[in-house]
Amino acid sequence: MDSDVIVAFIGSWPIEMEVIAEHMDLGDLCNYYLMTTSSSVPFDWRLKTATILRIVRGLVYLHTVEPAILHRDLMSQNVLVDSKKRTKLSDFGASRKAGDGNRTNGLGTCTSG
Asked: Hey, where are the domains in the chain?
């Protein structure tokens, strides 16, 4: 996938079954938000709006490529933040091609706390 709102796939390491992806300096959106709320760097409305718009752009991109892709596990831990505070969608382990007939009920990630 070639988009500025999707974390770039670089390669894979089949022996360990690991994906090699673009480095995102500020980590995931959940931790970034927690970090900014406890520091003097504000997560202001302008940044919140830009973040939401980039997430929506990422979903629109996924749903309009051929074949369309369903992320199926969108949450703040799967949205990564780069050094310029731009968000990108990541973690496509649960994703599926739209209409491939491979449906799973109750898909998602359970978190505690």
From this structure: 9-92
Report helix, strand or coil for 56: helix
Q: Cα–Cα–Cα angle for 100, 88, 10, nearest 5°?
A: 75
Nearest Cα neighbor of 94 from 70, 112, 75 is 70
Tell me the C-alpha distance between 57 and 61, whole Å. 6
Considering only CA atoms, give the Rg of the chain: 15
**Catalytic residue annotation:** 73
| DSSP symbol at 8 | P
Helix-then-strand count for the chain, H and E: 2, 6
Task: Please report the DSSP string for 56-100 in residue order.
Answer: HHHHHHHHHSSS-EE----SGGGEEE-TTS-EEE---TT-EETTS
**9-92 homologous superfamily:** Transferase(Phosphotransferase) domain 1 (1.10.510.10)
pTM above 0.90, yes or no: no
**What is the tens place of the pLDDT at every residue in 6-61?**
888 788 788 877 778 888 899 999 999 888 877 777 778 999 999 999 999 988 88
